[in-house]
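hey so i finally got around to running both of the ones u sent me last week. sorry it took forever, my laptop kept dying halfway thru and i had to restart like 3 times lol. anyway pasting them below in the order u listed, first the sequence line then the structure token line for each. didnt double check formatting much so if smth looks off just lmk and ill redo it

first one:
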Amino acid sequence: MAGGLATVAYNSVFKRFSTTLLALAVGGFAFEFLFNKATDTYWDSINRGKQWKDLKHRYANKPSADE
């Protein structure tokens, strides 16, 4: 099973340098996207209630005393 999977991976991705380079570029982009999404989610969960996006509704668009 593993030998067949390695053969398929070699024939479809690693046989030509251009496809290897494309696979690395796509993999790098996907890793960056997923890593940023995961760290942003973690940061937001740790700092819930302390960020502007959580407090904006309290302070934004309130009518002032002059109006």
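and the second one:
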Amino acid sequence: MLGMCRGRRKFLVASLALLFIPALTWLYLSVGSFQVKPLPLSPLEALSSTPVGGAGERQALELRVRVVEEENRALRRELSRPPRSPSAQHPSNNHRGNQSRTHSEEGTGDNESQKAVTVGNSSDCVRHPVVDKCETIHVAIVCAGYNASRDVVTLVKSVLFHRRNPLHFHFITDSIAQQILSSLFHTWMVPAVRVDFYDADELKSEVSWIPNKHYSGIYGLMKLVLTKTLPSDLQRVIVLDTDITFATDIAELWAVFHKFKGQQVLGLVENQSDWYLGNLWKNHRPWPALGRGFNTGVILLLLDRLRKLRWEQMWRLTAERELMSMLSTSLADQDIFNAVIKQNPFLVHQLPCFWNVQLSDHTRSEKCYKDVSDLKVIHWNSPKKLRVKNKHVEFFRNLYLTFLEYDGNLLRRELFGCPSEADHNSENLQKTLSELDEDDPCYEFRRERFTVHRTHLYFLHYEYKPSSDNTDVTLVAQLSMDRCCIKILYLLTIKIKTSL
């Protein structure tokens, strides 16, 4: 009985084994046909790696992809659009249009050289120049005597070096300066430059009644009468002292006229010394001024408006009233200009101080610039001139000496695209020089026969008296500044010994 039970158990185990072995084999093969997939690293990868169970899920995924692509295209279109102009964002400013300029009114570190030549910021990004390419810039300078004639040449060189516009110089001169400068510009033959002279002797009676303690003398008062002296059809002019050096294009300063508003007729830089504050010494009593006052080394004059305001009568009445207590001027025309502005502050448009960096002793000129690129106009308004005390005087002195010794012949360059008056002497000279054979061994000598050299008569004070027998001998020399002075001293020594 027991043996039968054991035999049945063995049969049952064998039967079960025969059933499980095929099942396990099938299960092993089934599992081997599947691939092990990595874990997704992002939501997008999870979506792409997840098997789509049906058509509905596949359509949902395709719809989502199309939505994302449409959003990207919309974003690219938005970024590709030009920026909207301020006038379009603010309807109240639409009436300004492209006339809203990007000048910087105040501050010393602004790079105004680019801002002063463009206006507006319209939606089509078109820039319009404030100063037309061929617009003539008018400059008025009072110049008298040998020294001033020598100084003004350095000023003119600095202006010509940077300029890109035609220039018209108006010189108020005595007979000496007119003789020197007329000969200089006639032999210089600079294209697109016109020069007119006005006799200062005829203007002396207009200002001779004003006592003046300034070293400039009576000529330091003649800027007051420019509205009467200059042509009546001249509307605006830049007025400069002879001790000015330009470090930028004068067109940038000319463009500032477009900033004048209301009744503003004078463009001036604030005085950078404490003179008009009256605290330089005990009992110091300056002329009345608005705050620190204004310096008249650089002036923008709207002549047409000044004439309508009866400028002549305005400054005369002010000067007469103040002279009753002040007795005389200390800083020439500057005192009278400031007294008028004190009574009529609406007349002045204050310029950024880099348009007149004043290098006199104890000034605040260092606040007008942070870098060399900030400098526009340098004013040597101290009686010490190049010997003035200043932190950066070496840099300013080197800049001045650069233009002092600069070859003026290099400034005889054409202004392309601007029509200019035909100079027949210059045209004939160029035609003659073009006919010379440059391969000729004597070309340089032949060229010198026709070359017109820039001539500065009476570089130093000299009273010429021609001899009665016409036996004068003139020495013509081309020397550097230092050698020129040594040579002149040498010739003067020889002349003195000969006369003895």
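quick thing i noticed on the 2nd:
Residues 2-32 form the longest helix (31 residues).
anyway thats it, ttyl
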